[in-house]
Write a structure and sequence with these properties.
The chain is of the alpha+beta class and 117 residues long. It has one domain. Helix content is 36%, strand content 36%. The chain has one helix and seven strands; from the N terminus they run H-E-E-E-E-E-E-E. The chain starts with a helix and ends with a strand.
């Protein structure tokens, strides 16, 4: 009976963690879109450029063993792939938002595709 109770508790805790992680990803998404849109508008030389999320995920924190034992946890972060389009051009950006941070960073190089319109 104890094993069954422990199994149910572990399963419930895991499901709650997944739901809260998705909630964190969803709550940071507007900032991620804004960061990609600003970068894309500049790179594409198109102030009217628009952005949309292509994919997202929460990256788990790994425990790091420091000289004094366990500690030195890097922040969890949400990672997004965001497409930006405007003025006949498209680009994709990799955007990182740290949980509890003050903003997001549109990282990497932009991959611009010129439309034939």
């Amino acid at each position: 009976m104890r094993r069954l109770t422990l199994g149910i508790f572990v399963t419930a805790a895991g499901l709650a963690a997944c739901q809260s992680q998705q909630g964190a990803v969803n709550s940071m998404q507007p900032q991620a879109i804004q960061a990609a849109q600003k970068r894309g508008a500049f790179d594409l030389n198109c102030p009217a450029a628009t952005a949309q999320v292509l994919s997202n995920e929460m990256v788990q924190t790994n425990q790091v063993v420091g000289p004094m034992g366990w500690g030195n946890f890097p922040p969890q972060r949400a990672e997004y792939t965001i497409g930006v389009e405007g003025c006949g051009k498209r680009a994709t950006y990799y955007v990182i938002c740290a949980e509890g941070g003050t903003g997001c960073v549109a990282a990497g190089t932009e991959n611009t595709i010129q439309s034939n319109n």
